[in-house]
Amino acid sequence: MHSALKLAFGSLVVGSIVLALKTLAWLMTGSVALLSDALESTVNLATAFAALVAIRIAARPPDANHPFGHHKAEFFSAVLEGVMIIVAAIFILREAYEGFLSPRALGAPIEGLLVNGTATMLNAMWAFVLVRRGRLLKSPALAADGRHLWTDVFTSAGVAMGVLLALATGWWVLDPLMAALVAINIIWSGSRVVKESLSGLMDEAVPEEILASIREAISIEAAGAVEAHDLRTRHAGSATFVEFHLVVPSDMTVFDAHEICDRVEVGIAKAVPDARITIHVEPEHKSKHTGIVVLE
Question: What is the tally of structural domains in the chain?
Fold first, then answer.
């Protein structure tokens, strides 16, 4: 099984265990804040399933209807995750409002917090794995899932502090107040996930540090050419698409121009794994005297 698929399947397993533990903690205490934590975990589980489906689709090879591949399927999954996060926050706000109207004492708060804390530790460990591996595998779906889990970890810690404070002071209204704060934080997190995923769907250029690596590879490996210009990049899932024009001397043979292109492609591939490169070769009179300077 593909590494990304294994991680996505692992998220389903971990998400199911965490949801069960957090639901148990809520049932033990009756806490609105712990209910909000459990509701967020339902989103984790649903989006883990969406990520698994998206990664399976993205792994398909190009076909006649999708000649550039299926990489963008992962961005759709991440957008869906962001939307579902926001929907969960709305449900939490509703529960918090009802808790404000009728605050109540909690049952078995210490035991419930211990159960919830176990779920939080499991989430933290898995979030670390997802973010790290998601970046290495260039998987937007896995990275988004990992970032969301980290948000869940921090909000769970805040929930625990709120419940402990309510227990210490007897101000039970702190319980729904903490749930409302969790919801606001979740909305902010969900909006970030949507924004980052939409940038991929809109063919946003690669980050500046990656672009600099591509420029450097072209400059070093295109010896014999005149210049390179009109460099364009975009990313889709694990793939990075690179296009540019390469100007060569007008009397250069097709064979020699092709050799330069081969060197450039190898150099870019070393700097940016899974790069999909398109080079348009032009004669010298097409020079723009701008763009990338080729080193001799």
Answer: 2
